[in-house]
Amino acid sequence: MLHRRLIWWSKAIYKLTLFMLTCPNQVLTNSEDLESWYQSFLPATTTSSNETPHIIYSYRNVATGFAARLSPEDVKAMEKKDGFLAARPQELLSLHTTHTPNFLGLHQNLGFWDSSNYGKGVIIGVLDTGIHPSHPSFNDEGMPPPPAKWKGKCELNGTFTCNNKLIGVRNFLSGSTEIAFDDDGHGTHTSGTAAGNFVKGANVFGNANGTAVGIAPLAHLAIYKVCEVRCGGSDILAAMDAVIEDGVDVLSLSLGGLSRPFYDDNTAVGAFNAMQRGIFVSCSAGNRGPLSSSLSNEAPWILTVGANTIDRSIRATAILGNKEEFNSESLFQPKDFTSTLLPLIYSGMKGSQCIAGSLNNSDVQGKIVLCEVGGGVSNIAKGRTVKNAGGAAMILMNLDSSGYSTSAEAHVLPATRVSYADGLKIKSYINSTARPMATILFKGTIIGANNAPMVSSFSSRGPSRASPGILKPDIIGPGVNILAAWPFSVENNTDTNLTFNIISGTSMSCPHLSGIAALLKSAHPDWSPAAIKSAIMTTADQLNLDNKPIVDQRLTQADFFATGAGHVNPSRANDPGLVYDIDPDNYIPYLCGLNYTNQQIGIITQQRVNCSTESKITEAQLNYPSFAITLGSTNQTNTMTVTNVGDATSSFAVEIVLPLGVDVSVEP
Ligand SMILES: *[C@@H]1O[C@H](CO)[C@@H](O)[C@H](O)[C@H]1NC(C)=O
Ligand SMILES: *[C@@H]1O[C@H](CO)[C@@H](O)[C@H](O)[C@H]1NC(C)=O
Ligand SMILES: *[C@@H]1O[C@H](CO)[C@@H](O)[C@H](O)[C@H]1NC(C)=O
Ligand SMILES: *[C@@H]1O[C@H](CO)[C@@H](O)[C@H](O)[C@H]1NC(C)=O
Ligand SMILES: *[C@@H]1O[C@H](CO)[C@@H](O)[C@H](O)[C@H]1NC(C)=O
Ligand SMILES: *[C@@H]1O[C@H](CO)[C@@H](O)[C@H](O)[C@H]1NC(C)=O
Ligand SMILES: *[C@@H]1O[C@H](CO)[C@@H](O)[C@H](O)[C@H]1NC(C)=O
Ligand SMILES: *[C@@H]1O[C@H](CO)[C@@H](O)[C@H](O)[C@H]1NC(C)=O
Ligand SMILES: *[C@@H]1O[C@H](CO)[C@@H](O)[C@H](O)[C@H]1NC(C)=O
């Protein structure tokens, strides 16, 4: 994989800074006027180099402001100019796959799209690492032409072309003149998950064989490349600026950074302006779970998506000399691995993490090595270490924090990854006998894990730091062992046009929800982004396939800060009956209630706001499908309003389940 570095990143003396300016007195509709007004803020030369400063992005839709590469001194000088509002340095966000990027998994097929529209007529914009344009997941068989409102661009060159599936491709990596080709895989995978076309015989190492298809197979895809290893805040904002003009309906972002106030969060600022134009924004919740308050993308105008398991595994069972068996997973399923028991070794404290070099003084030749996950080293790399030291196979055990949360990975040797509890049993077996023995049995793709959906250990948890009164994440969706399109062969890294990969992360659950939003948008073109979100949230499942409450990685009942409203149920979301709708203007009293200054709110809303003349509301008073309050000694009252989106003559029966200390009344 070629991981080029961004130009601004390699020039250390420069700082890419975003400027937010107050609107000029007369409205500058002409983009040249806007550009020259922005230009007037730039110094003639920067103090740190003799290069003439220039504007990298002039924003029009998501911000009144621009991005430029300047020194801190330049910024100081600019602060004195009339119209200056705020400046901030480039923010770098991460892609939301799990820490070990070669996770492997399976495609979920729970009849997600039983509505007949398949997302027809809807355009999904994906901000990611680009696309492998010739992958069959992006063929346009059966696709109608894009709707007339589409104004986007296809910036591919001679080798590749756009089609009725892939209607737009643009590169927003600052400084790059190359096409938005995906040399990472992440963007191809997320795009395929959201709206890939049907491809038969998709598999990885022969596993999870079947028809690969995105959630909204008739939706169109518009690709905006903003990431390469990391994603720059100014690039994201520039892509969102374009998205608004291009005519995208649903925006999917499988990336994010740490929590920050909304006015200081480019994704939140861009998403607010997208939402105001009716664009639905779906984002990954982050992979920093199970730590609490570890969320990204927390704004109430964004759908924040956590990740859960699906009911398939690619089984690799560890068998011990005492006949104990531990089921787990591996994507690499060697056909010829011996079922004869081999010596089993645990290298103890020093070698337990199987980091390169740590096995040098252990005799692992021909043995099965027990290793622990973690230590900042990917599980694949641990396998390579064991293999290089002459080990025959590897059993990986989870840390206490990851509990029972595992996933199938493309190991380089026979391997399996067991839960923390099973790992402890294996350790005590090793302790209990002079000659511990084990083997691994590879059983292939198995369907029927009834504890699915289970919240993954990595899925970021609430409460929200930026706005604790809004319960986040909003929803969970499939994000473990997800099979989708990939630009090159996982087996030998060769470029091919028919390759898939199985990976895990909230990056994978987010595009599932983006696809579902596209299905809903297609079926209900008049629903607002808030109405679509409400429909998704109020119809979610709280029970797993066993009809028991959804569990987390400890196999104990998951709390609302892990599940949000629960596991998405698309068919039910299509008919929610009632929705909690929010008009974009309703967010202003909410933002005033967060005690942001007028200027800070202006950065988000692009309009002058005066909180002393606005009504303020508490977070819980936003007409959101969920809210969080702290019960105290004084009474608090929240009024929510629902809107009927079903038959005009519907009648509803009220059933109230009361948490302790809360009263609910319903009128009429
Ligand atoms: C198209 O772009 C790719 C990737 O940037 C490059 O390798 C290729 O040479 C270009 N082809 C043409 C015909 O410009
Ligand atoms: C995948 O399934 C298809 C259709 O059933 C079959 O033709 C093909 O051989 C299978 N491929 C693998 C690798 O199992
Ligand atoms: C382990 O052995 C390898 C190969 O012999 C060597 O390159 C490496 O430096 C050794 N590492 C340590 C920590 O001893
Ligand atoms: C294994 O035995 C050693 C020595 O008896 C003991 O210190 C250690 O805690 C035991 N480990 C496990 C996992 O039982
Ligand atoms: C690489 O993998 C592809 C797809 O699995 C296969 O067709 C090709 O023969 C492999 N090439 C090598 C050199 O192993
Ligand atoms: C993939 O498809 C493109 C466009 O159809 C073609 O130019 C290229 O040669 C194909 N690559 C492989 C490895 O088959
Ligand atoms: C905003 O300030 C008011 C008054 O000081 C306070 O009651 C309220 O809790 C603050 N809101 C938040 C979200 O901090
Ligand atoms: C905001 O409104 C208050 C009350 O009407 C007024 O005193 C204040 O000057 C206004 N602030 C701005 C910046 O317009
Ligand atoms: C809160 O409301 C309840 C029910 O209306 C009432 O009985 C109680 O006195 C109120 N408490 C306070 C502190 O106002």
From TrEMBL:
Name all PA domain ranges: 343-426
Where do the coiled-coil regions begin and end?
A: none
Q: Residue ranges of the Peptidase S8/S53 domain?
A: 119-547
User: Example GO biological process term?
Assistant: proteolysis
Q: Where is the active site?
A: 128 (charge relay system), 186 (charge relay system), 507 (charge relay system)
Q: Which GO terms describe its molecular function?
A: serine-type endopeptidase activity
Tell me where in this chain the Inhibitor I9 domain is found: 31-96
Q: Which UniProt keywords apply?
A: Glycoprotein, Hydrolase, Protease, Serine protease, Signal
Subcellular locations according to the entry: Secreted
Which PANTHER family would you find in this protein's record? PROPROTEIN CONVERTASE SUBTILISIN/KEXIN (PTHR10795)
Q: What is this protein called?
A: Uncharacterized protein
Lineage in the entry? Answer: Eukaryota, Viridiplantae, Streptophyta, Embryophyta, Tracheophyta
